[in-house]
């Protein structure tokens, strides 16, 4: 007898297939989506972008960060579905909602996703920040540029104390390829202490980038 062992549940293609074939619930509220993608209309209406000031990220008093609010409710459940449940289609409505909050005065030239280490991306099947950045960039009419790379594997930030997060990411990012002129927007899924975005900022500053803005689904 031949026994067929299915791929592990975290396999991206397998989860994508299941999400097409099986009835799906909205990750934000649990309502049935049918064949609709991402989030239901009610949950999309709850995604309200805002420009905030995060002291370590803002050199001046001017806010440099756009988010969809606190890491709770619909944003939290949607991020967790994207990050851990294989719900790639959630990236579209989240990224587009973030783009709606970007002031025209920022004049964004490109969106730069926070990278995963290659080993973690192979395990997950995709980089959730890159999917968010692609949706956001498309809405803004600018390119999504994977300019950053992880130079070493790091411990998961969510499992570390706040005091350990900065040292965990020190020197963990580098710039690859040519950096375009203009303002770049760095995007991550969740902002807690800001250590990840600050480490990305330092890498881009070292490459000569001076004008940066930031985005995160939730903080």
From TrEMBL:
Protein's name in the database: Competence protein ComF, putative
Family the entry assigns: Belongs to the ComF/GntX family.
CDD domains: PRTases_typeI
Source organism of the structure: Deinococcus radiodurans (strain ATCC 13939 / DSM 20539 / JCM 16871 / CCUG 27074 / LMG 4051 / NBRC 15346 / NCIMB 9279 / VKM B-1422 / R1)
PANTHER family associated with the record: DNA UTILIZATION PROTEIN YHGH
Ranges of residues in domain Double zinc ribbon: 17-52
